[in-house]
Amino acid sequence: MHLSRTPEELGSDPIHDLVSRLKQLPGIGERTATRLAMFLMGAPKEYLLGLAQTLEDVAERVHLCSVCCSYTLTDPCSICSDPRRDDQTICVVASVQEQTAVERTGVFQGRYHVLHGVLAPLDGIGPEDLRIQELIARMESRTVREVILALSPSVEGDATSLYLANLLKPLGVRVTRIASGIPMGSELEYTDALTLNKALTERRDL
């Protein structure tokens, strides 16, 4: 195992560095990061080395699918390479977690496109920070008839849906959005399968 480290990292405090890196994880604050660091420092060396190897494997082997931009070990991913899926319908989601939530319903049999975020100007996230150009490029195949915008019902999700609809409709593609029933401000990945199934089935045109 060869984990590359900068000279600055080699000379720094590993405990402080560990806490700092853990704090960068979503939902992890100072106290939680410190508690996790204490757990890791008390864990067997074999566990730590195994964890380090797993993280290195993820960094080396996991990448974005060149078609849908989801995480994958193969390119294209298993869904994009599945001949049984419907090429004419693309479901656009903000994250891989939301893709998993939609797939779990079992009602959608088309393809996916993962944006890796939503428009959030106050956080400095604009169109150039999302996988929007890759989505537009997929329209050039002329096989796509409908794009379903399965974005969480929030201010950012609404703004992203409207932005994408304005880009896609001039290309002659039907643009729909999942129906209501998902509470405003909720996260799609935490929505139960029955509600999400109904939202997909009763989607509406934009």
- Domain count: the total is 2
Distance between the termini: 51 Å
If classified by CATH, what would the architecture of the largest domain be?
3-Layer(aba) Sandwich
**CATH first level of the largest domain: which class?**
Alpha Beta
Q: SSE order, as H and E?
A: HHHHEEEHEHEHEHE
Biggest beta sheet attributes: 5 strands, mixed
According to CATH, what is the topology of the largest domain? Dna Topoisomerase Vi A Subunit, Chain: A, domain 2
What is the fold's blueprint, element by element?
Blueprint (H helix, E strand, L loop, with lengths): L6 H4 L3 H10 L6 H13 L2 H17 L1 E2 L6 E2 L13 E8 L2 H10 L4 E5 L17 H7 L7 E4 L5 H14 L5 E4 L15 H9 L2 E2 L1
Parallel strand pairs: 3-4, 3-5, 5-6
Antiparallel strand pairs: 1-2, 6-7
Polypeptide structure, described:
The chain has 206 residues and is an alpha/beta fold. The chain has two domains: 7-61, RecR Domain 1 (Helicase, Ruva Protein, domain 3, Orthogonal Bundle), CATH 1.10.8; 71-205, 3-Layer(aba) Sandwich (Dna Topoisomerase Vi A Subunit, Chain: A, domain 2). It contains eight helices and seven strands. Strands 4-3-5-6-7 form a five-stranded mixed β-sheet.
